[in-house]
């Protein structure tokens, strides 16, 4: 379908309506965050960000994000390879399992881990005896973050690997290349952009996850508080300027992620056009 | 050819299989199994007593109703956005296109506090809505607005590629046969878009039903009025009533699966009927 320059009132009307909808729904909240964050001037803004609890929360958020992205990248590559390079029984079932987190409320996701590792769990006495803290501690936060983000990379990789087929890898294998060499020299160059794209989506969701992390975190300031949870605490204490100041950090990260996303998409398209 | 690929020529089957099943078990299968066992352990009587409680029932009702309303709004505006971005060339189009993904990148807690401040009684938009007698925050309308925000990209992103790949010749044929724009859209273009529209609609609906972060601030959380199911799970957890939380969560989980199953089933039925 070809795009045309709008040439009548009706077409301009549709464009206008779409633009107004996006401005009101998406842009206005962003402007509001900036305006509220700076409502009491730059000094208050910078103080809110420099506060030790905010810095700790930022650090914990980054820690959980890095852990989730690393784990999910390994899993994403392995599962996409498994689902596209081999035939085996029950493949449809396993691939539909991968979509499950999209149908599970983040709050329920957090609850799953509370039940598995929390006080009512049969393994809780063992964990306690070994001094392993999972719930209301950092490992729980990482598990919850991994849960809500694990399908992203696989879902980006599977369609493109399916479309690439198996013939290149099969040719390499019959010529005696090892699995690792095939992956590095044949597969990876083909899926590079899809992988980066999946990592970006995974990072975005991991940085901002709220519901699942909220259930397992216990909200201990300076210990198990991530940035989004810190925002909630500040907001509920009516410390709106600080809440929006911290929120503005996440807005900046979100905008950077969006720009990266568009750059990657543009590069990937250009690569396709050049027959790469 | 089939027997060739069945031999698993490409190395790495057992390695990727191992990683995938280990990771899926740890993150998804064991927690889900523990959750189902735990809920089963509480017995029918207790389970039904929790789930059929009027407060719980009302929370499901509000969750489903507001998520449905949000999915319908996203269906209409998602179609409009996809149409405008595919069919017309205009200044700022790339920016609008990039903006659509903002809700995927912006943490839900940030969206939540921004929307609440925006639509509160003294907020930038709320002051006008309240003056018209429309309570836009702490009401089902506010919950719907938050769900529209988080579900906004789904429909647009599902419809866009299908619309882009439509063959322009079909439309030209319709025009040559004397069909007007509206008739062409209704009879030629729209039937092609039903499938991606339903996909986007169901994703947006399921996301809305489980959404927590963006809704918790704007909902006001009044029992029997603006309390949604994920919030109620959270409330039960805070009272350390894990059994009730698990029972409510199980029903919420089944509701989300049912939504996705019904819509997927309908899609398959449509495809079969058309004989495509």
TrEMBL record, chain A:
Subcellular location: Membrane
GO cellular component: plasma membrane
Record keywords: Membrane, Sulfate transport, Transmembrane, Transmembrane helix, Transport
Protein name in the entry: Sulfate ABC transporter permease subunit CysW
Function description: Part of the ABC transporter complex CysAWTP (TC 3.A.1.6.1) involved in sulfate/thiosulfate import. Probably responsible for the translocation of the substrate across the membrane.
InterPro entries attached to this UniProt entry: CysW_permease, MetI-like, MetI-like_sf, Sulph_transpt2
UniProt subunit comment: The complex is composed of two ATP-binding proteins (CysA), two transmembrane proteins (CysT and CysW) and a solute-binding protein (CysP).
Any Pfam family: BPD_transp_1
Membrane-topology annotation of the record: Multi-pass membrane protein
Residue ranges occupied by any ABC transmembrane type-1 domain in the UniProt entry: 58-261
Signal sequence coordinates: none
Transmembrane segments: 12-38, 58-84, 96-120, 132-153, 194-220, 240-260
A GO molecular-function descriptor: ABC-type sulfate transporter activity
PANTHER family to which the protein is assigned, alphabetical: SULFATE TRANSPORT SYSTEM PERMEASE PROTEIN, SULFATE TRANSPORT SYSTEM PERMEASE PROTEIN CYSW
TrEMBL record, chain B:
GO MF terms held by the record: ABC-type sulfate transporter activity
Xref: InterPro entries: CysT_permease, MetI-like, MetI-like_sf, Sulph_transpt2
Domain of life where this protein originates: Bacteria
Recorded topology in the membrane: Multi-pass membrane protein
UniProt keyword list: Membrane, Sulfate transport, Transmembrane, Transmembrane helix, Transport
Annotated TM spans: 21-40, 60-86, 98-120, 132-156, 244-266
Primary location recorded for the protein, binned into one broad class: membrane
ABC transmembrane type-1 domain location: 60-263
SUPFAM superfamilies found in the cross-reference section: MetI-like
Pfam families membership: BPD_transp_1
A cellular-component GO term for this protein: plasma membrane
Protein location: Membrane
Subunit annotation: The complex is composed of two ATP-binding proteins (CysA), two transmembrane proteins (CysT and CysW) and a solute-binding protein (CysP).
Entry function: Part of the ABC transporter complex (TC 3.A.1.6.1) involved in sulfate/thiosulfate import. Part of the ABC transporter complex CysAWTP (TC 3.A.1.6.1) involved in sulfate/thiosulfate import. Probably responsible for the translocation of the substrate across the membrane.
Family: Belongs to the binding-protein-dependent transport system permease family. CysTW subfamily.
Protein name per its UniProtKB record: Sulfate transport system permease protein CysT
Species annotation: Selenomonas ruminis
Classification lineage: Bacteria, Bacillati, Bacillota, Negativicutes, Selenomonadales
Gene (name only): cysT
């Amino acid at each position: 379908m070809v795009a045309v320059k709008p040439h009548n009132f009706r077409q301009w009307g549709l464009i206008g309506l779409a633009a107004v909808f996006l401005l009101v729904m998406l842009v206005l909240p962003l402007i509001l965050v900036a305006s509220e964050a700076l409502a009491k001037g730059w000094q208050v803004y910078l103080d809110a960000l420099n506060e030790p609890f905010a810095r700790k929360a930022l650090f914990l958020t980054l820690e959980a994000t890095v852990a989730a992205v690393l784990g999910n990248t390994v899993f994403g590559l392995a599962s996409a390879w498994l689902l596209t390079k081999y035939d085996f029984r029950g493949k449809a079932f396993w691939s539909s399992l991968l979509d499950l987190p999209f149908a599970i409320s983040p709050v329920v996701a957090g609850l799953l881990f509370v039940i598995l590792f929390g006080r009512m769990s049969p393994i809780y006495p063992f964990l306690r005896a070994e001094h392993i803290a999972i719930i209301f501690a950092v490992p729980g936060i990482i598990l919850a973050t991994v849960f809500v983000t694990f399908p992203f990379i696989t879902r980006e990789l599977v369609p493109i690997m399916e479309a690439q087929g198996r013939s290149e890898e099969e040719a390499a294998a019959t010529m005696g290349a090892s699995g690792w060499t095939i992956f590095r020299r044949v597969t990876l160059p083909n899926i590079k952009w899809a992988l980066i794209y999946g990592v970006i989506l995974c990072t975005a969701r991991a940085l901002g996850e709220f519901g699942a992390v909220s259930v397992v975190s216990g909200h201990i300031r300076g210990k198990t508080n991530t940035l989004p949870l810190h925002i909630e605490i500040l907001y509920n204490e009516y410390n709106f300027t600080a809440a929006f100041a911290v929120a503005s950090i996440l807005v900046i990260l979100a905008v950077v992620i969006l720009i990266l996303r568009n750059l990657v998409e543009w590069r990937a398209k250009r690569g396709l056009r050049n027959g790469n | 050819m089939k027997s060739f690929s069945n031999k698993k020529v490409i190395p790495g089957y057992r390695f990727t299989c191992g990683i995938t099943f280990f990771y899926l078990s740890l993150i998804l299968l064991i927690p889900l199994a523990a959750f189902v066992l735990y809920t089963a352990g509480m017995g029918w009587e207790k389970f039904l007593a929790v789930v059929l409680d009027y407060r719980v029932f009302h929370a499901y009702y509000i969750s489903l109703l507001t998520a449905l309303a949000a999915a319908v709004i996203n269906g209409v505006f998602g179609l409009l956005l996809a149409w405008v971005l595919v069919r017309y060339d205009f200044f700022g189009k790339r920016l609008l296109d990039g903006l659509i993904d903002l809700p995927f990148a912006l943490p839900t807690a940030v969206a939540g506090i921004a929307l609440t401040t925006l639509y509160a009684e003294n907020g930038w938009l709320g002051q006008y809505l309240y003056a018209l007698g429309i309570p836009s925050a702490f009401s089902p309308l506010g919950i719907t607005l938050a769900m529209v925000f988080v579900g906004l990209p789904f429909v647009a992103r599902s419809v866009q590629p299908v619309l882009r790949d439509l063959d322009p010749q079909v439309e030209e044929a319709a025009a040559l046969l004397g069909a007007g724009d509206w008739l062409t859209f209704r009879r030629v273009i729209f039937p092609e878009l039903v499938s991606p529209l339903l996909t986007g609609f169901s994703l947006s609906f399921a996301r809305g039903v489980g959404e927590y972060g963006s809704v918790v601030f704007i909902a006001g959380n009044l029992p029997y009025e603006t309390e949604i199911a994920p919030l109620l799970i959270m409330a039960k957890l805070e009272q350390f009533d894990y059994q009730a939380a698990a029972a409510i969560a199980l029903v919420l989980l089944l509701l989300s699966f049912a939504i996705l199953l019904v819509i997927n089933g309908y899609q398959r039925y449509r495809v079969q009927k058309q004989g495509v």
